[in-house]
Amino acid sequence: MQLLGKLLGNHSVNLARALDRTSQRSSMLTRNLSNVNVPGYKREDMDFGIALDGEKGKPGDRLKELQRRSGINEGGSGAIRIDGNSVDLETEVMSITEMQVRYQLLAEMTSRHFSGIKNVIREGR
What we know:
The chain is mainly alpha-helical. Helix content is 69%, strand content 0%.
């Protein structure tokens, strides 16, 4: 990643990290959805903003503390059903849709960024 940052600038690295985090969260949400009927399953999630703050060079301990306090990756609000499963179908579908839109937006931004770089290389501007 450091070489990419030196060649293409920090914007490219930030876009790559954002795409990676979006993909990770989408995987978590999909896993939650697939376990919606598993008794005792605890919902996993990550706060995208906190994850990106951690990527910007803030200490990892701060990120872990924020996650611990907010219940992220530990079922969030806890069990909401009698069987101990904390997955809410509507919440998961809505979150997955949000992540898809976010990923599409980031992919479009990345495409435009590299198109701009390509134009600079071709045109010499």
